[in-house]
Design brief:
Length: 109
């Protein structure tokens, strides 16, 4: 289940805006997350509007996890630069092959 943060962020983006901590605040007083502050110029989403973003929110959160996994598997920027340098020097495709494997091992939804 996608978080309220993710679904609210997607709703804001669908209304051609970006998340702004001075315009929106989420809170949980023990009975679930809710939008505490809303000062955007467009309508505050109700529960049914937020629910419309469940599928997109699940995809966004899954892809964010995949991105984090990919970042760790790509290695440091120093090791990537070393692969690129050696590929250019030797006419090989080690870096491209490495990136292709990381992507195929961790496909996005």
């Amino acid at each position: 289940m996608a978080s309220l943060y993710t679904k609210t962020k997607l709703y804001i983006e669908a209304n051609s805006s970006t998340w702004d901590d001075t315009k929106v605040s989420l809170q949980n007083d023990g009975s679930g997350d809710y939008i505490k502050i809303w000062t955007y110029s467009f309508a505050k989403p109700n529960d049914s509007k937020i629910a419309e973003y469940e599928t997109a929110g699940n995809t966004a959160e899954a892809n964010a996890n995949i991105d984090a996994t990919r970042r760790s598997q790509y290695g440091s920027w120093e090791s990537q630069m070393e692969m690129i340098y050696k590929d250019q020097k030797n006419g090989t495709s080690t870096f491209k092959d490495h990136c292709d494997k990381v992507r195929s091992d961790n496909p996005k939804e």
